[in-house]
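re: the backbone from monday

yeah here it is again, tokenized this time
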């Protein structure tokens, strides 16, 4: 029976978690309750409102249009509550969580972060690592740094480009010695990261470089592991300039063929329509740092190259 009284908060929380995760099990894990408890709360909310919020078989429930609209509004409301509680707990401080590509965080963001913290002592920044696509209907962090191809960003996200993207092959100095022939370079072991296993093909297509089939390939879980493998002499890796600039400056890596600018770019993502002075400051700082970040040098070694 439909009721005019406000629905129970626990039922609203259970339904919002189910909608965000797309399943009862994940929602139950987040809320530290059983699958059955979430199911009962969703059923109770439907009975309270007198409308169907979910439809379909028990193990493949989907949101109805009314349920999707309610879930969207609830997500924003619970996020606002969480922000308000975080502000109250922090007192005069505001903590923001930034989801970032792990290698970019290690090689670019964290070495510069002290500058932002000095300029904004009232803001605390927590950096979490992720390569996953951003969906602010699901994700609970305040903002994210990702690499995106040209075009619109994710739905319900404000997208700010802050730095161009350059890529090129890098290796330890001894792996690409002076006078190395194109054939010798092409025969070197090719390193790749599973987070972007198409790096060699993309670089080859983008630069017009013709490469023969690899004689040996080695794959690593993340870019930072791949870069360390390249620095240790295990082969050649194609990597973004922002990921390897510190190692090139230190002489651990060379880039005999330079770096090519791609159509993709580094972007900062935040939920659209959410006012937040701390996030405004972080976005503006990222843009300023992107402007002054040193561009790639043409090459750091005399390799003969493979471009035709």
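seq for it, each position gets an aa:
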């Amino acid at each position: 029976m439909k009721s005019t009284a406000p629905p129970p908060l626990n039922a609203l929380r259970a339904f919002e978690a189910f909608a965000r995760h797309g399943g009862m099990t994940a929602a139950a894990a987040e809320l530290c309750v059983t699958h059955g408890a979430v199911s009962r709360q969703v059923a109770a909310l439907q009975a309270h409102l007198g409308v169907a919020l979910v439809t379909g078989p028990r193990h493949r429930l989907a949101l109805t249009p009314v349920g999707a609209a309610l879930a969207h509004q609830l997500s924003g409301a619970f996020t606002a509550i969480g922000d308000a509680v975080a502000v109250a707990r922090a007192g005069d401080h505001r903590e923001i969580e930034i989801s970032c590509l792990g290698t970019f965080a290690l090689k670019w963001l964290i070495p510069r972060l002290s500058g932002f913290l000095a300029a904004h002592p009232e803001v605390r920044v927590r950096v979490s690592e992720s390569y996953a696509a951003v969906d602010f209907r699901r994700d609970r962090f305040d903002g994210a740094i990702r690499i995106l191809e040209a075009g619109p960003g994710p739905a319900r996200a404000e997208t700010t480009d802050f730095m161009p993207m350059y890529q090129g092959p890098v290796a330890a100095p001894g792996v690409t010695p002076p006078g190395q022939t194109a054939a010798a370079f092409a025969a070197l072991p090719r390193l790749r990261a599973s987070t972007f296993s198409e790096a060699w093909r993309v670089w080859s297509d983008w630069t017009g470089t013709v490469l023969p089939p690899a004689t040996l390939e080695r794959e690593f879980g993340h870019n930072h592991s791949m870069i360390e493998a390249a620095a240790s002499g295990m082969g050649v890796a194609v990597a973004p300039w922002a990921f390897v600039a510190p190692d090139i400056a230190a002489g651990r890596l060379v880039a005999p063929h330079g770096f090519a600018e791609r159509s993709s770019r580094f972007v900062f993502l935040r939920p659209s329509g959410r006012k937040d002075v701390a996030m405004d400051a972080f976005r503006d700082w990222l843009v300023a740092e992107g402007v002054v970040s040193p561009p790639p040098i043409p090459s750091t070694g005399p390799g003969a190259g493979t471009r035709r």
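The longest strand covers residues 157-170. The first helix runs from residue 9 to 21.
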